[in-house]
Design goal:
Low-confidence stretches of chain A: none
Radius of gyration of chain A: 25 Å
Order of helices and strands of chain B: EHEHHEEHHHHHHHHHHH
Strand content of chain B: under 5%
Largest sheet of chain A: none
CATH superfamily of the largest domain in chain A: MetI-like
Number of helices of chain A: 15
Number of strands of chain A: 0
Mean pLDDT of chain A: 78
Low-confidence stretches of chain B: none
Oligomer: heterodimer
Number of helices of chain B: 14
Structural class of chain A: mainly alpha
CATH topology of the largest domain in chain A: MetI-like fold
Largest interface: A-B, 46 and 39 residues
Amino acid sequence: MKKYIGKRLAISLVTLLIVIFVLFLLLQLMPGSPFNDERLSQEQIAVMSEKYGLDQPVTVQFFRYVKNLCKGDFGVSYVISKDTSISVLLENRVPISFGIGGEAVAFGAVIGLILGILAALKHNSWWDTLCTFISVIGVSLPSYVFALALAYFVGFKAQWLPLLYDGKQFFASSVMPMIALSMFTVATVARFTRTSLLEVLDSEYMLLAESKGITGPTLMLRHAMRNALIPIVTVLAPLVVDLMIGSLVIEKIFSIPGIGSLMVTAIQSNDYNVTITLAFIYSVMYIALMLIVDIVYGIIDPRIRLAGKTD
Amino acid sequence: MKKKKEQSAGNAARVLSVEEYLSQIDFREDDFEFQHKDGFEHIDTNFASQGYWKEALVRFRKSKGAMFSLICILLLTLMAFVGPGMNEYTYDQQITVNQNMAPRVPGLEKLGILDGSETMRTSTGSKEINYYESNQLEDTWYWFGSDSFGRDLWTRTWMGTRISLYVAILAVIIDLAFGLTYGMVSGYFGGRTDMVMQRIVEVLNSIPYLVTVTLLLLVMKPGLLSITFALMFSGWLGMSRIARAEVLKLKEQEYVLASRTLGAKSLWIIFKEILPNIFGPLITQTMFSIPHAIFTEAFLAFIGLGVPEPLASLGSLISSGYQNFTSHPYMIVFPLLVMGLLMLCFNMLADGLRDALDPKMKDM
């Protein structure tokens, strides 16, 4: 187990270093420098380069870049709001994005689990058909289709919920983005829960448990769900990717001041510093989540957990 | 079969060459026929064994969703080719007087739908207006309406479908050219080659797709070429994993060993012996990467990295339609419908193909 975790950790670190290296190279290659001012003379530029260490070898600059990233110093934005430190720019946006993302994951997981369990328990009934239908639709259609439909019918026509984000009523204005974002999660979780629960319910140990007289919730929770949930952990990684990509578009549609809409604005206005910082943050989040998923899977799946012991 | 002469004890130690040995044997006609043939050979006519592909075709035909999707995709493809030529407008022709015209279709307008009128909402209330009547354009028809530059949305929608289909074909080519070869080579050679190749995949896999795509587009200009590169960068990873797993399953089988014993080279074994036996899962995987690729293009277009104006893709139409979708919803509805239908059909087709080609995977 230790060997397994160590290996995963090493791969994650190498990946992170590669990502940072690529981002650093891109920053070097990008047109425009902080000293792009015609009024500056050659000597002034030389003095400033020395002050910021730009005259040092690239390797030294790279390690300083890594050090700065670790300290949370991402540099300044050049276009979106001139000379503002990016950490300041992010300060208010990160909680909003994480709030909505978290809501979407929780909502999607709960609804998906309920749908999946109902479909498996009432196999071949109309619940089952409904569940299959929802999962096909949810997996196939991009999240902005749901977002636009919700925005038009619920937000604009019926006016039940605020069409655009309103900081004063966070919850009310996060309902529509949350539902739109979580459709993929609902679909995937429902589909996997149904499949793996059907498999478990069909197994011999369930028959044994039933013949021992275990019934009701104990049977479902202790014996069926515990085993059925293992494969669901594996779909977490694609879900997170979808949430990240979805959040970019959804935050734009509902004008949510989060990091997703900041990323879109940064890309559209060629603010390289901000784009690269956000790319770094997304990478860190994703790599960390993949690591956690792999380790959690190793812990709950005995085949991986025990594999190390035989070595 | 009988030997021409019995080997004497003195000769037994000598090893015969194959030719010598064969020359000693006298073959007869009935040597190659089963003995007592009649009586034990029953051919089951009810469940006659059929070829893999024939069985798959039967299973595929039975699936209503998959057949429906196939027909839908064929129709959309047809429309993508003939649609832009069906009226007098071109995709980049701007008629500035005909801005924001609501859809109007001959025939349907008598039924009261798609008759060119739309509801305008202001703070004082809503009003039904019809630009075709107020501007005296009795002979003008915009089947899907016109956009804020006075361009025909019907033509632009089908031109956009072409781009989505191009992306779909591209996804298949990338999957087959990169993913398939990479995965099969990695799985077949194993050992150190596999080690190195799999570490590369692992690293590429743990960089979020979103990041690679946006970074790539930072360096390149938005357009079809950069979308192609973005897909090439990450589209093949899933395929390489499946191809590797399938090769690992088959490469220890006897028929591969037999082929190798007969002197076949690695490349021959990979592509001639193994590949035809793993086509099923590979086709399924390819089909699943199509909707993913179409979605990627639409996503890039939505964040402003799609094909440049005046070209249109479904993604860029949705992206520009959403700017004023509360006042002119028709601008976004048609591209959104085509896009949704395309994604749904490719997904359902992939599901149907998986059930047909790989029945064990059903319900996954």
